[in-house]
Design the sequence.
């Protein structure tokens, strides 16, 4: 019986790109970033050790950073971003939940002009 990690790059891409208006792009050298309206909601390393960043609300930030394998994101922790350093620390359902919450937080904060251009709201 082989061990299957809770998350991998292919599954992460599938979850992120299933969200409406989500796009992907390589930024900062070798980080695969998922965005909505050109604002990142999830970023992960393509190479090297597994690390994924997500935006959280304050309550989730506190709860998640109490778990081993999840730390405040350097330079972004003041805005409640976490870095998940262990792909097994969350179940797939939890990954889906926190990715969607990150996406929704970014989506709701998009400027009105961006929301209109994406067709999220009517002109």
Sequence:
């Amino acid at each position: 019986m082989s061990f299957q990690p809770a998350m991998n790059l292919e599954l992460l891409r599938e979850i992120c790109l299933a969200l409406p208006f989500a796009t992907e792009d390589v930024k900062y050298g070798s980080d695969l970033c998922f965005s909505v309206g050109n604002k990142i909601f999830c970023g992960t390393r393509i190479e090297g050790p597994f690390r994924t960043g997500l935006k959280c609300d304050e309550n989730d930030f506190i709860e998640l950073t109490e778990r081993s394998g999840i730390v405040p994101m350097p330079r972004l922790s003041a805005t409640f971003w976490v870095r998940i350093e262990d792909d097994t620390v969350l179940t797939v359902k939890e990954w889906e939940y926190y990715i969607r919450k990150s996406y929704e937080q970014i989506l709701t904060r998009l400027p009105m002009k961006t929301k209109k251009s994406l067709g999220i709201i009517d002109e």
User: Anything to note?
Assistant: The helical segments are 9-17, 58-65, 92-108, 112-118. The radius of gyration is 15 Å. The first helix runs from residue 9 to 17. The chain has a mean pLDDT of 91.
